Amino acid sequence: MNSSQDSTGKPLQLKRSIGLAGASALVVGGVIGAGIFVMVRDIGALAGTAIWLSFLIAITISMVGVIPLIQLAGSLPSAGAGYMFVSRMIRPGPGVLVSTWVLLGGACSVCVATRTLTQYLQGYILSEVPVGILAVAILILFYIIYCFGVQLALSLQLVLALQFLSALLLYAGAGLFHGGVSLTLPASASPAPFLMSVLLCYALCLGFQIIAEMGEEIRDARRTIPRALLIGGVLVALIYILVGIVFVNTLPFDVERYAALKAPLRESASLFLPAGWVHFIGLGALTAGCAALNAAALTLPREIFALARDGLLPAGLGQIDRRTGSPKNAVSLYFLLVAALLLCPLDTDFYGYMAAIGILAISSVLGVAAIRMYTHFPEHYARAYIQFPPVVLYGCAVIVLLASIGFAAVVIHERPIIVAVYLVWTLLVGLYYKVRTRTFTEAHWRRLSEFHSP
Questions:
Q1: What are the two backbone dihedrals, phi and then psi, of residue 165, each rounded to the nearest 5 degrees?
Q2: CB contact at 8 A, 269 and 278
Q3: Helices 275-299 and 131-146 sit at what angle, rounded to 10 degrees?
Q4: Tell me, what CATH number does 227's domain have?
């Protein structure tokens, strides 16, 4: 019997096993990674006591970008949302291109999380293990977890999210009790460093889109996805702003002192918390990194699955495992892509910039897709959990596009080679798409323009 058929011979479908708690954990884990535990130092050095304003501006822009996602995922919940939304609202070709950008950027984000965990473990308990071996071991461990299905990975996500959220809230709560709340602005703030601090904050706010990848595996997805995004957005905003305020209040502004910090939150927490709680906050950096890795590696293989289901990748990658109810072959291919990238002699910052460009690409295009959905699939728009007027979607699309261009310009200025990498990737994908679709019939093309709820 085909592994993608049930006992009666009917095609298997992805299991709707994810509730609101699991969806919210994916959102929070996908956005809040280990970055906040380290980058708060760099943001504080640039913004000073205005760090709360930097986070507020960045989160506001990020949440504006979430509105088109809420509209799309709340109307047309799909597996492989990047590909599905763009291919149906615009054209299949751009859908394939955006999907592969997301896959490359997402794989790089997993590399960042894996490298971060490797460095953390080396600094504490596994200093003798080579970086490459430890990174591959972490990747293999997570792959083994996925072999047991979505539920185990989701249970792990909930545990990880609860731990690092508790650590961050402990830091924020105890720090506010110790030093109070100060929302002052520097007397003479230079706009250039402050603008850079906003861009760094914006980088920490990327990742909300991954929840839409699991649209066909979320119970009552039209309601659950928007609610999970709203819950996640509020938690991210609250934690980032409070953590920033506590950090600059407990460690008075000093650029040289900030630069010398290796574990900013843990070191500042030692000023007002007992040693045991300080270690608990330090553990949060590890669990946050694991949650970010888990969220990306769990959701993004659905892009491969969606492409294969539409005949744009080999059919075997679109099969659903009968035992776990997940696209195991697509997951395996995604982990091979991540492993190949990890073996490249590249630094963690390079992976981070690559990941940012991939996320910005889908954020920009989803704004356009949400506008077109209003006319292309009016019946689904009418059934959406939340219906945003077209003028709101237009406004969001423009704001996100401008923000993405600005952030991408900074990334490209820092690492121009990234443009060449994505250009070569685009040319290869375009060539593959042309060869793959040259035998497609009119009926096949018609199928790629339709949306069928599973």
A1: -65, -40
A2: yes
A3: 60
A4: 1.20.1740.10
CA distance 372 to 392: 13
Helix (H, G, I), strand (E, B) or coil at 100: helix
In the DSSP assignment, the letter for residue 408 is H
CA dist., res. 307 & res. 300, Å (int): 12
The answer to whether the CB of 400 falls within 8 A of the CB of 65 is yes
Looking at the structure of the chain, the number of domains it has is: 1
Instruction: Give yes or no for a contact between 60 and 233, defined as CB atoms under 8 angstroms apart.
Output: no
Six token digits for residue 65: 């970008």
- CA gyration radius for the chain? 22
The confidence score (pLDDT) of residue 403 equals 84
Q: Which residues contact 153 (CB under 8 A, 6 or more apart)?
A: 145, 146, 294, 298
Range of the structural domain that residue 86 is part of: 20-447
- Give the pLDDT of residue 178: 81
> Per-10-residue mean pLDDT for the chain, 454 residues long?
49 83 92 85 87 91 89 88 91 93 90 80 65 81 87 92 94 85 64 84 86 91 92 93 91 80 86 92 89 89 94 92 86 92 84 86 85 84 85 89 84 86 94 94 86 61
Cα 346 to Cα 340, 342, 359, 405, distances in angstroms: 11, 8, 20, 25
- Name the strand (E) or helix (H) holding 366: helix 348-376
Q: Does 2 reside within a domain?
A: no
Q: How many residues does the chain have?
A: 454
* Widest Cα–Cα separation across the chain: 73
Give the single-character DSSP code of 414: H
H helices of 180-270, in order, are 191-204, 221-250, 255-260, 264-269
| Nearby residues of 141 by Cβ (< 8 Å), 6 or more positions away | none
Instruction: Encode burial over 384-417: b for 16+ CB neighbours within 10 A, e otherwise.
Output: bbeebeeeebbebbebbbebbebbbebbeeebee
Domain assignment of residue 399, yes or no: yes
Q: d(Cα 247, Cα 51) in Å, to the nearest integer?
A: 9
What pLDDT score does 17 carry? 86
What are the b/e assignments for 355-365, b being 16+ CB within 10 Å?
Answer: bbbbbbbbbbb
What's residue 186's pLDDT? Answer: 65
Q: 99 near 307, Cβ under 8 Å?
A: yes
Task: Tell which residue, 244, 286, 291, has the closest CA to residue 268.
Answer: 244
Show the tokens assigned to 85. 């939304």
Strand partners, 5: 11
DSSP code for 10: P
Whole-number pLDDT of residue 280 = 94
Q: Is residue 5 part of a domain?
A: no
pLDDT of residue 101: 93
Neighbouring CB atoms inside 10 A of 439's CB total 7
